[in-house]
Amino acid sequence: MKVLLVTGKLAYESVKEIASQLKDVKADVIALNYPIASLMTVDYIAENLKNISLKDYDYIIIPGLASGDAQKIQEVTKVKTYKGSEDYRDIPRVIEALSKGETLSTIYPADTILKKKKEEDIEKILRELEEKGDFAFEIDGLKIPRYPPPFRIFIEFDASKDIEFLLGEAKRVSNYVNVIVLGFPNGHEDLDEVRKKVTKFREEGYIVGIDSASTKELIEGAKAGADFIFNLNEDNINELAVIKDKAFVVAPLSIENRANVTFNLYRKAKEIGFEKLILDPILSPPMVGLVDSIFEYKKLRDLTDAPMLMGILNVTELIDVDSIGVNALLTAIAGELKIGNLLIMEHGKTRWSSYEVNIATKMISVSLHKKSLPKDLGLDLLILKDKKRIKEKIRNPEDYLFINEHIEPKNMDKGFVVIKVADKIYLEWKGKENIKISGTDGLSIGRKLIELKKDINNEHSLYIGYELAKAELAFKLDKNYIQDEPLFVRGYNIIDSNNNTTKKK
Length: 505
What we know:
- The chain is of the alpha/beta class.
- It has 3 domains: 2-115, Rossmann fold; 133-370, Dihydropteroate synthase-like (TIM Barrel); 399-477, no CATH class.
- It has 15 helices and 19 strands.
- The chain has helices at 12-20, 42-49, 71-77, 91-99, 110-132, 163-173, 191-203, 215-224, 258-272, 290-303, 313-316, 323-336, 353-370, 442-452, 458-477; strands spanning 2-7, 26-31, 59-62, 80-83, 135-139, 142-145, 152-158, 179-183, 208-211, 228-232, 247-250, 276-279, 309-311, 341-345, 416-421, 425-430, 434-439, 493-495, 501-503.
- The chain has an 8-stranded parallel beta sheet with strand order 12-11-10-9-8-7-14-13. A 4-stranded parallel beta sheet has the order 2-1-3-4, with helices on both faces. It has a 3-stranded antiparallel beta sheet with strand order 15-16-17, with helices on one face.
- Strand 5 (135-139) and strand 6 form a beta hairpin.
- The relative contact order is 0.06.
- The model is unreliable at 492-505 (pLDDT under 50).
- It comes from Sulfurisphaera ohwakuensis.
- This is Dihydropteroate synthase-like protein.
- It holds the Pfam family DUF6513.
- Residues 137-365 form the Pterin-binding domain.
């Protein structure tokens, strides 16, 4: 296969270096007399290629962000022409796709086409896994897997909260979870509240579980429509027989020999007439038995093919670490142990665990299906870090003025801004005029401020733009934003401008 890569003057050397590293493909590079490749139009490219003999090429690849339909170039050159990647560093991926016979687009960048195709492939796999899954039972239309894939996600809410708040949270996570579990605190004994909240959630169309230390509350919740009961244990198994048509999570009170105790509870429940059972020998928090408890899950899985549940909230909630990686790793562990049901919670630093675990279960499902590592699947949870660092090559770095000190402002306006982040970004200009703007796009908020307050000087505009960028990042990452304070801090240390580790001040 022979390919012609079209680029501009600034990117020529970089594209040429990438072309030289391509295997099993002959790739030539032509730089048109235009500085920035992405700003070229297809008309300009066609005009500059029309008098060049290109008959030996199988494909012409133009910059992904070039404007217009590349079909025009194909008509002029008589060579199949496609748009490549938005970033020249991704050219190898584009060439690989062509080598495999994949069809790219004359209109959209190759990144968009390849990403869409991967997403379609993943969705097809996930649909097939749903259709062919090994399910133990079905309740209220939800099939409970004996083994993953697929997975089911249960999220527990603090049911002592106001009902409107709980419903708002349920709506927020509804695309990511399967069952809403209303968890009532120890000592709670208000059957009327249980009845009203379970009924309300059922009326809103949610599949509901109830978790309570009170057997009376569990029975009342079941009567009100809760389908999943947390937990069936040594103390309440006989009393809960009155609602044995419901689905139960079997979890021992004993902290010794959890696998055996759980299995014996399961067998006793079966003898009494309970049919819809999910086993949970309880995941211990870090440093107080986490590893031992994982062994208990393995022992229990070896004893039975009954569906199992792992409460990964016991780890994510009890370690001060970003929840993304913890949730992904625990989901992978559950996948290896053939545990198809996961219980999570969202509170503070674990907010959006629903999304994280949802993506993690899809990754592990596809990985189990393909018998491959959960890597390069087209799905990832790389939110704060990139898989590969881009190594920028700076020509003549000595020509750049290096700033190694904090520069204080010299010429700020008499007015000032106050920026806060809540359900959106809020900016208030305080001075002779009072201007209030809110939104979710920091750049647009800044532009609107400049439009309304035309005499903000350059130094102040730079500061406002910098703070709005921080505010938007905080909003998107669900972090706290404090004006004039760093958004990211690495533990007890920070990295200074010389890349040296210094003590946090």
